[in-house]
Amino acid sequence: MSQKYSLSYRDAGVDIDAGDALIDRIRPLAKKTLREGVLGGIGGFGALFEVPKRYREPVLVSGTDGVGTKLKLAFQLNRHDTVGQDLVAMSVNDILVQGAESLFFLDYFACGKLDVATAASVVGGIAKGCELAGCALIGGETAEMPGMYPDGEYDLAGFAVGVVEKSRIIDGSRIRPGDVVLGLASSGAHSNGYSLIRRIIERAQPDLNAPFDGGRTLADVVMAPTRIYVKPVLALLEKVGVKGMAHITGGGLLENVPRVLPENTVATLEKTAWSRPRLFDWLQAEGQVAEEEMHRVFNCGIGMVIIVAEQDAETALSLLQQAGETARRIGRIMARQGNEAQTRVA
After folding, report:
1. pLDDT tens digits, residue range 2-57?
2. What percent of the chain has pLDDT over 90?
3. Are the CB atoms for 291 and 254 separated by under 8 Å?
4. d(Cα 93, Cα 97) in Å, to the nearest integer?
5. Nearest Cα to 42, choosing from 60, 63, 18, 19?
6. What is the C-alpha to C-alpha distance for residues 228 and 234, in angstroms, rounded to an integer?
7. What is the DSSP-derived secondary structure letter of residue 266?
8. Torsion angle in degrees (nearest 10) through CA of 89, 93, 94, 99
9. How many CB atoms within 10 Å of residue 135?
10. Cβ–Cβ under 8 Å, residues 109 and 152
């Protein structure tokens, strides 16, 4: 009969000391994201936040998302410093389209065995994303679960909460034929379509560390973090009556733009109106991806769509460009004929 001995949590695969060390690394990162409304720091059972008093009829807007299979490339390339920004961007850009100011963000990091350096790198990216969005990293959860994930792998999820004045909610209901569609440039594939991207990379077997686009390698390009549009667009909303916005995520241009359009309208986009980044040309050629499929899966260079009245278009473009965005007129709203698709790229 074997002799029994005392077991600890560490014996079971969970290192509480490593978790404590990570919290110590996270605290200064979170502190840099503090903003008005935060009533408590990281470490409490719940995060406290007071809605800014300048709102008369505040409506809370929330969004949640992950990073998807882009994480598989992060593991393969051992690049963990940018996926945190991806995580923040996917939620804060989503709530932005309804006119919401991002208030705070919480993350969930899950792994089989906690590597403090890797987790701290990921959270560093989350903190950077929060700074870019002007929201506070107010809390989160690190879950070490032995046997749930392969060694060296982890999963990420997060959610953002924002606020908008009830009278200023943007829902697309004021969009009319004749309105102008503006496009804001993406920083790459953002965090969508990576199951297809990985399949194409497996087929093409490229040298990911070879020069690809200017001074950047293909690894640099596919891991480029999602652009966060919050501050320039919120500034725009103070000066221009934006009618509708769409964050171009999974579903590409063809499926995201219709989400904000009234049923009697169609957005006609001109693909010659913007420059498609080389990454998308390479993906299409190596994967022999049909043109319509490209626009259904990827952003193809447009990460955010903004719809304004014709008389506001030039002012909006000027303000966005002054704020550092690459913005273009990329189409127009037309009257819908029957049951035709609500977005077409020609």
Report:
1. 577 787 778 777 788 888 888 888 888 888 999 999 997 677 788 899 999 999 99
2. 87
3. no
4. 7
5. 19
6. 12
7. E
8. 150
9. 26
10. no
Q: What is the CA radius of gyration of the chain?
A: 22
Q: What is the mean pLDDT of the chain?
A: 95
Residue with tokens 């509480």: 16
Closest CA to 226 of 76, 67, 108: 67
What is the rounded distance in angstroms from the CA atom of residue 171 to the CA atom of residue 99?
A: 9
Residue linked to tokens 């014709």: 310
C-alpha 130/C-alpha 30 separation (Å) is 9
CA 182/CA 176 separation, integer angstroms: 15
Indicate left, alpha or beta for 214 from its phi (over 0: left) and psi (-120 to 50: alpha). Answer: left
Q: How does pLDDT run across 310-323, given as a tens digit for each residue?
A: 999 999 999 999 99
Question: Which residue in 48, 144, 45, 55 sits closest to 101, CA to CA?
Answer: 55
In Å, what is the CA distance from 221 to each residue of 64, 105, 188, 332? 25, 26, 7, 30
Greater confidence (6 vs 173) lies with: 173
